[in-house]
Amino acid sequence: MDTTIQAARRVGDIRADFPLLSAHPDRVYLDSAATSQRPEAVIAAETAFVRESYAAVHRGSSVATGEATIAFESARETIAAFVGAAPNEIVWTENATDALNIVALGISDASLGLGAERFALKPGDEVLITEAEHHANLIPWQRLVARTGATLRWVPVDEHGEWSIDALRERVGPRTRIVAFAHVSNVTGSIAPVADVAEIARGSGALTVLDACQSVPHRQIDVGALGVDFAAFSSHKMLGPTGIGALWGRAELLDELPPARTGGSTITTVTMEKSEFLPSPQRFEAGTQPVSQAVGFAAAADYLTALGHDAIGAHEEQMTGLLVEAVDATPGVTLVGPRPGKPRASLASFIVDGVHAHDVGQFLDDRGITVRTGHHCAQPLHRRLGVAATARASAYVYTTPEDIERFRVALSEVRGFFGAGG
């Protein structure tokens, strides 16, 4: 049976759900790995809440507060169900970067004696990451080891920007306390063997922290079944608003992890000498919460659920194949990441011989094609590849074969335009 999105709903109909694409019918948007477009259903849900139900949540006993709180917590239930979690395992954050920092800062506080001993790091302990990580899953761990005296180690990547499970296994030892890695690389599109990594880490007694930004929007994820201990993802990469993300953690771990930020809404009892904190998720959600954003986030999850994970996956597999073919078949253009025919997510980073990535991006943009250029917040990976920057094209539910054909044609003209050959 045909499970592509075209079978469930014609792509043209899906594109009509997205106001920006309707407003700019000639624009090819291939930058969803950075920020995806929002469908009208998401915009409408957030707008309706702001117009009709806007109020503080978890504060006071008014009808308005009660209605807003119901909407806020219902959104949490929706996101929890979307990733196979319990509602008390979903913490609202500013974004996935914030979520990863919450874990690292909580472990840092525990190492100072402010939380459960199970999280405490000491000199000689090790935090293991990969050379392919986004800065959001690198810098917090750099800061953590600097505070605690632990050691940061990493799994190297090869000339294509990929790391291997065997190389990771070799670096996990008795002093490994944390293994942090991305489910999908935002540069190479490589898909990590999450269950295998979690099993290796568990054998050493290490916690696993998963950057799931590039996986949750595109594939059906059951966070508990993956075997990891924490996972972070963002709304704006899955058709939702900016300014909100989520931290998932196993309930027993979240209830013991010290909160990275403290203040109103997080406490049970406060005296002038000390404070006691609520269980998860409230213990991590200090101050005024992102209520309308949470409503929009949930609407995005509902939209994706209605499309169906199988349909999304089949469509993206087709678009990924076309992207990889467009890049790999263009003379003077080098594909980064898995070789053609190997599994990858729906993005393709590439290097154009003799032309800087920023110039590539400007050339494509002049022809109505939006891509991402730069180091994609992954400088160590680009340094290993021997380049300062790459260009990246990424597809999503609204991408069409015609979009990618326009990209292919424009890409084939880049080197000639800049006098670099081709």
Description:
- The protein is an alpha/beta fold and 422 residues long.
- It folds into two domains: 136 residues, Aspartate Aminotransferase, domain 1 (Alpha-Beta Complex); 260 residues, Aspartate Aminotransferase, domain 2.
- 40% of the residues lie in helices and 15% in strands.
- It has 16 helices and 15 strands.
- The strands form four sheets. A seven-stranded mixed β-sheet has the order 2-8-7-6-5-3-4, sandwiched between helices.
- Helix 13 runs parallel beside helix 16.
- The longest helix is centred in the first third of the chain and has 20 residues.
- The radius of gyration is 22 Å and the shape is globular.
- The chain starts with a helix and ends in a 5-residue tail after the last helix.
- 51% of the residues are buried.
What brief labels describe this structure?
PyrdxlP-dep_Trfase_major, single chain, 2 domains, globular, alpha/beta, pyridoxal phosphate, Aspartate Aminotransferase, domain 2, Aspartate Aminotransferase, domain 1, EC 2.8.1.7
Write the layout of secondary structure elements.
Layout lengths: L4 H4 L2 H5 L3 H5 L4 E2 L10 H13 L10 H20 L7 E4 L2 H16 L14 E5 L8 H10 L2 E5 L9 H7 L4 E7 L11 H10 L3 E5 L11 H4 L3 E5 L10 E5 L1 H4 L12 E4 L4 E3 L13 H17 L1 H20 L4 E3 L11 E6 L4 H10 L2 E2 L1 E3 L4 H7 L4 E5 L6 H17 L5
Parallel strand pairs: 1-13, 3-4, 3-5, 5-6, 6-7
Antiparallel strand pairs: 2-8, 7-8, 9-10, 11-12, 12-15, 14-15
Helix pairs in contact: 4-12, 5-12, 6-7, 13-16
